[in-house]
Every structure is written in structure tokens, then in C-alpha cells.
Amino acid sequence: MTDVVARACELLADRERKRVPLLQLVNESGFREAPALLTTEAATTYLGLHQELIQPWLIYSMNKRASKGWYIVGKAGQYEVGYVPIGQREVLRFEDRTRACAEFVVREVREIASMFPR
């Protein structure tokens, strides 16, 4: 497992602990230098070993107040990862909470990095 994957999956825990913006943590994660390392498969593996990281991502998505961006929602064992405004991008559906969260983390980190290029 790479540090990039671990640091991306732990962004919310780091934000809580360090009290710094997510953009700063994305910049410190190594993602910009090696974006190919952050894959859904790698994030699924890491989150599978660190299940405690998943709920904060679900809460983060629910509390986002943005006119556009990625989201993840879960109901009755079904999870959806999509983009607001609806219809701009594909909507993905999962039964596996870990896989859904990994997909959201990868897309959210990429989105944050793309919104604020260096």
C-alpha cells in the first residue's frame, strides 16, 4: 500500500486532527506527484483494513454545501456515487460500502486537486 493511498483515505481524520483545509492535505498527500497511485482498487483495500474511515466520508458528503461536486449516499445496503448537478456525469451504484467509499474518495481527491491547480 502506498503512502498516497493511505493519506488520501485518511484526509478527513487528518483534517480533524490538524485543523487544516482539505486542499492543504491533498497537496501534502503526494497525490499531485503520483496521481496514478490513487486507484479505486488500492483505496478499497486500504479502507477494507480501516473501516473506521468510511463513516466520516459518508458524513462529509452529506454535509457538503456545494453547487457542484461528487457525493456518496447510502440507503438499505445500496450506495450511490454521483455528481451534482445530476446528469453531468455517470451515477455509480454499489452494494459494497467499502468499494463505494473508495470510489468517492478517489473522485473527491481528484476533484479537489483539479479545482486548485498549482
Structural class: alpha+beta
Percent of residues in helices comes to 40-55%
Note the gap between the termini: 26 Å
Q: Please tally the helical runs, counting DSSP H or I stretches of 4 or more residues.
A: 6
| Average pLDDT number | 93
What key phrases describe this protein's structure?
single chain, 118 residues, alpha+beta, three-stranded antiparallel sheet, 3 strands, 52% helix, globular
Explained architecture:
The chain contains 6 helices and 3 strands. Helix content is 52%, strand content 14%. A hairpin with a 7-residue loop joins strand 2 and strand 3. The chain has 118 residues and is an alpha+beta fold. Helix 1 (3-9) crosses helix 4 (40-49).
Write a compact overview of the structure shown:
The protein is α+β, with helices and mostly antiparallel strands and 118 residues long. The protein has six helices and three strands; from the N terminus they run αααααβββα. The longest helix has 19 residues, at 97-115.
Helix/strand layout:
Layout: H1 3-9, H2 11-18, H3 22-28, H4 40-49, H5 54-63, E1 69-75, E2 78-84, E3 92-94, H6 97-115
Antiparallel strand pairs: 1-2, 2-3
Helix pairs in contact: 1-4, 4-6
